[in-house]
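Anyone? Bumping this.
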Amino acid sequence: MRDRREAERPEIETRGSLLDAIRGVKWPALRAVAGALPGAHHSRLRGAAPELSEYRVYRQGDDPKRIDWRLLARSDRAYIRLAEDRSIVSTLIVVDATASMAYPPRTLAKWRAACDLAIGLAAVAHASRDPVGLIVVAGGGVHQLPARTRRGIVGEISRALDGVTPAGKAPLASALAGVRHRWRVAIVSDFLGDADDVRRRAGEVAAAGGEVHAIHIVADEELDPPGRSMLAVDPEDPSIARPLVADVRAVYQERFAAWRAELATAWRGEGLSYTLARVSEPASRVVRRVASRALGGGRDAALHARSEGR
Amino acid sequence: MTFAVPFFAWAAAGAALATVALHLLAWRRPPETPLPTARFAPERPVRMVSRAVRPTDLGLLALRVVLVMLVGVALAGPVLAPRRAGTPRVIVVDRSRSAGSGAEVTAAARDAFRTGDAVVVFDTTAREVVAPTLDSIATTSPSQGAGSLSAALVLGSRIAQRLARNRDSVVIVLVSPVTTDELDAATAPVRRTWPGALQLVRAGAAPNDTASPAIPQVRAGAGDPVGVALALGGPLAGGRSVRVVRDGVTASDSAWARAGNAVVTWPVATPAEWSRRAAVDTAFAVATVGPGAATVVAPFIRVAEPPTGRVVARWSDGDPAVTETALGGGCIRSVTVAPPSIGDLALTPAFRRFVERLAAPCGDARQLRPASDSVLSQLLPATIAVDGTGPVAVEATDSPQRRLVAWLLGLALAAAVVEMFVRRGGSHAAV
């Protein structure tokens, strides 16, 4: 069953083809950022950029250099020029590398999909000259790459992820403790650990002006377990061992779907971005959907969002 | 191989099939498979029924099937050699003197005989009749020898056990009056060597017929000492079948003797056909032969010698004084003792006992009294009379079938022990 599913994948992307597929994809910030450094995202600041936005009456304290002298000469009134400013937004990719991500055990397809998504999002962010950082939360500890703008940061992220083997159990929310306000955070996880704590912390980040994207990785085998009878054991908590036989499969799928819908509702209810990513779905497509959230979402994204609850 | 109770074999086969089915529908723990979303499956007992396409624990399954089949086959009573239907019998026919003329015994044996039965005739010894038929039973001549039931039962038991190898059951049919002299100390042990049924057909004498006492017939003159002695002695057992003649044996006496009675010829004058002694002499004592001998001490003039026959009494020097010769079913007893015509010898108790012993029925019939039922029930257990309802089945205590059943049950017990160890080993391995 598992092999057949892998064979039915529409496409298998290599890292190179992934980067090619997402070339040109923009991942704008959900709202105007407050950064000072020039970048690709709309800034809440009105600066002296060449692109004129509006005029405003000069008030005491304004920089006299921004007074439009020609308008003053013509109208004898002092106005200052305001322009749309663009800034960067630091992006932090948080990847869940606990034992639940090492699934299926033979192919680790779930972990590979998470890595591809992390690299894809990092590449898109880096293409906008945003600083990109990485936090990998595994049972053995937290691996961290500070946000950098330098050229090879995507490669560094790729190598860092390749060096991690998902195992153990660790709280994902602790990785968000050090996230600065106004950062953009993308959490790639199956949210089978401390999902409530993560959402709570993500809400705090968002309330402080940050931006949080939840990319929920789900393996196809989790959505549709193999038909044979088995004793399903939670790899992070062996005490959870439930028989999964034919007559309880429907109940399992119903409960799992309800939990996913509840998770999506909770995240979106707090103004956070939530994207369901199936392992069999090409990573480039998921990256585009995540990026499209910031643009208000396309028709496909809307349809997909409605289907995520199912 | 056949079964005495095939139901148990079929039941065992059904139980074995059920065992296999239970193995296929075994409670087993399904294989563990990691699934991160296992928490969404409903909580159920970890052990569950699952149908195994290929049964596990084939060794344990085989042991259990073997165990069930062994017990079932043992209870079914396996018979390795095919048995023929019917119940053959061993007809044991009494030809001893106890049977008298043998006519009644022969008739009873012919009634009991069926084709395929074995026939044993016996008197002092027993022999098997080869290829017996109704005619061969009728042609066996009676003997004047004492009967030995022990010898007859030994041979009858051997033949019965030979027949029992390929028959379901064998019955020994004993056709005999069963008198007391045919029984001895070995009769009961020999009877116990045959575990099967023994059917008793008492013929030739009425059971418990005590031969009502009577004074023998005496044909003598008045005041004859022998007649006086018999008259003083009173009724004798079997006296009706005894005739004492003091004159000479007539044709009617011979006919009466052929009918199974005893004619005691005690002539006053020596018959011409008797041989005379070389010299007339005097003997001073005479005694009967056998247990409880009656002895008379008195001077007797010996003139003649009795005819050749079974010696009933002897003189003090050992010469025969009284002999008995068979005649048909009866006998003629020749007495050469001449009691003195004068004196009171005839009145003495010793002479009366002597006369009474000589006036006994043929073959010393006072020892041929039919054995009582109580004696027979002790010496010949598990037997019934011909008037009963049928043969008594005596359960065999040691037969090939019983040994086979014992072996099967032993193997079943061993299989149960091995199964217990295998099961425990399997459970430990599973833990």
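Late reply, but here is one note on the structure posted above: Residues 87 and 169 of chain B are 6 Å apart (CA to CA).
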